C-alpha cells in the first residue's frame, strides 16, 4: 500500500482543497473520514487486517464529532514527511494541529481514541493542565 492520509474535516477547516492538492501532487492517497467512521480502528480504515488484531473492542461510544481537523499519516518516510510539511506551508495551508503517524500500537485505536490522545499530548506540551 502506498502512502496514505486519513483526513477528518469537521466542516469548518480553512482551505482543505489546498491541502488536498498538495497531497495529490505528491501522489499520496487521501481517505476522507466521515463522522460515522470515527469509531472505527485506524487499521481497519487503512484496510490492514493485521493491524487490527487484538483491537480493544470495549464498545465505548464516541462523544460526538471532532472539533478540529485530524491527519493520520501512513507509510511516510522521514524525508517524505518533511516534504509534505514543507509543501503545506508553501501552499499557505493553515497549520493542522492534530497529526499522527500510524504505529503498531495506535493502529488498534479508533480515530476518536487517537483524537483524545493527541489532545491530551497537546495540552501537556502547552502546560494547559497546570
Distinctive features:
alpha/beta, 4-stranded mixed sheet, 130 residues, 34% helix, globular, 4 helices
Would you kindly provide a written description of the structure presented here, covering whatever features stand out?
The protein is globular and about 35 Å long. The chain has helices at 16-26, 42-45, 78-90, 111-126, and strands at 4-8, 29-33, 70-74, 98-101. A 4-stranded mixed β-sheet has the order 2-1-3-4, with helices on both faces. It has 4 helices and 4 strands; from the N terminus they run βαβαβαβα. The chain has 130 residues and is of the alpha/beta class. It is 34% helix and 15% strand. The protein starts with a strand and ends with a helix.
Amino acid at each position: 500500500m502506498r502512502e496514505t492520509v486519513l483526513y477528518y474535516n469537521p466542516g469548518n477547516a480553512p482551505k482543505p482543497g489546498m491541502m488536498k492538492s498538495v497531497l495529490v501532487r505528491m501522489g499520496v492517497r487521501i481517505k476522507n473520514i466521515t463522522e460515522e467512521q470515527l469509531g472505527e480502528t485506524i487499521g481497519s480504515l487503512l484496510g490492514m487486517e493485521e493491524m487490527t488484531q487484538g483491537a480493544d473492542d470495549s464498545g465505548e461510544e464516541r462523544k460526538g464529532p471532532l472539533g478540529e481537523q485530524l491527519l493520520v499519516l501512513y507509510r511516510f518516510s522521514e524525508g517524505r514527511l518533511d516534504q509534505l510539511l514543507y509543501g503545506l506551508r508553501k501552499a499557505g495551508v493553515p497549520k493542522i494541529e492534530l497529526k499522527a503517524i500510524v504505529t503498531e500500537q495506535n493502529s488498534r485505536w479508533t480515530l476518536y481514541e487517537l483524537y483524545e490522545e493527541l489532545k491530551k499530548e497537546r495540552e501537556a506540551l502547552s502546560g494547559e493542565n497546570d
